[in-house]
Amino acid sequence: MKYCADCGQPVALRIPKEDNRTRSVCDACGVVHYVNPKIVVGCVPEKDGRALLCKRAIEPRYGYWTAPAGFMELGESTAEGAARETLEEAGAKVEIGHLFASVDVVDAGQVHLFFTAKLLGSYAAGRESLEVRMFAEDEIPWDDLAFHSVRYALQKYFEDQGQNNGVHIHELRRAKS
Questions:
Q1: For 26-81, what is each residue's pLDDT tens digit?
Q2: Would residue 177 count as lying in a domain?
Q3: Cα–Cα distances in Å, from 32 out to 13, 52, 74, 110, 141?
Q4: pLDDT digits (tens, 9 = 90+) for 116-144
Q5: What values do phi and psi take at 142, rounded to 5?
Q6: Are 143 and 108 within one domain?
């Protein structure tokens, strides 16, 4: 951030008084600008023991498989966001179930939340998907999944067999060299 979103003046990077992290601070109006993680919401739509996955038509990870998911929007709940993303990416309406996986993607500044979901009808590739398909656990293209968080969520989903066994929490960080 170079300029204050409130007054337009240049900002400086420093640790504000009574804080412990470097922030963008406006010397003109005194506003401290906080940059916080973004929330990604998604689900594993299921029908007859099979999970719906989308082959990405966008970067990052074009051509790789993923669960329907994306950034949460203001004015919606996490469950509403997961349902919206499923409709956008897979043309599918779902009944959202319980939250079952939370993945802290520290290096990307994101938190990924995954819900169970019942597929309510048909599905078709949306504009962000090349293809959508139903997969049994032994058919999942594990080597062609777009993101580690999706791999983790699918593993936990099938371990739980769709039951509410609580929320599985995982942290992803790049290894320090």
A1: 999 999 999 999 999 999 999 999 999 999 999 999 999 999 999 999 999 999 99
A2: no
A3: 10, 43, 21, 21, 45
A4: 999 999 999 999 999 999 999 999 999 99
A5: -55, -35
A6: yes
Number of domains making up the chain: 2
Ramachandran quadrant class, 2 (left: phi over 0; alpha: psi -120 to 50; beta: rest): alpha
In a domain, 94, yes or no: yes
Give this prediction's pTM.
0.90
Please give the Cα distance from 169 to 121 (Å, whole number): 30
> What's at 149, amino acid-wise?
S
Question: Could you tell me if residue 91 is inside a domain?
Answer: yes
If asked whether residues 136 and 100 sit together in one domain, one would say: yes
Pairing mode, if any, of strands 168-172 and 94-105? Answer: parallel
